[in-house]
Amino acid sequence: SSISSVDPSFLLPRLNQVDDWQNKPPLKYGKITIQKSKSAIVKFNQAKKNLDISMSKPDDWVLIIDSDLDDIFIRVSSSIIDQKLGIKKKSSNRINSEGLTGCVSIYNSTFAGTKINSNTPMQNCEDAINIINSSGHIASINILNAKSDALDIDFSLLDIERLSVQNSGNDCLDLSSGTYSLKRLQINNCGDKGVSIGEKSDV
Length: 203
What we know:
Blueprint lengths: L26 E3 L2 E5 L4 E5 L4 E6 L6 E4 L7 E6 L23 E6 L2 E10 L7 E6 L2 E12 L2 E6 L2 E12 L4 E4 L1 E13 L4 E3 L3 E2 L1
Parallel strand pairs: 4-6, 5-7, 6-8, 7-9, 8-10, 9-11, 10-12, 11-13, 12-14, 13-15, 14-16
Antiparallel strand pairs: 1-2, 2-5, 3-4
């Protein structure tokens, strides 16, 4: 199905707490706006259009909000060396103290030729990558070693050229409430479902 077949008014935000972050100074890189936990490290190379995100603690998180991610390469990694730091009893609450489920959450943003790589085996978030209320074309998403779900997409209109997931503690891909085109999908070693398609999803 075409990703243009859904009425844009259907895209409803899930994050009721978004306005609260306006009280915290965001990081600004041109058309990219970021909020983050204190110990998460974010670097942007304007010339190469590389956005590098490094998690220093198991509960670190990054929110990319209201951003134009055209031709951006987002690379997410963890700098945690002591694996004992990542061992934590799984909480029954999917949402952290900031109202986010993702190690990296991308909210109300647009994509064109965007690439996303993630390898965060020691992070305690529910989703390695969570995309919410966003639209456009993603060239590739590669996720390795997600502790729980690998990729969760909600309320979005997305055309994904290639998705690869290797080693996910729970679902490799969760889709809900939107229209999604997936041209090439490669998933291996999913702890639960390979692909979970929720209500009001057109894939």
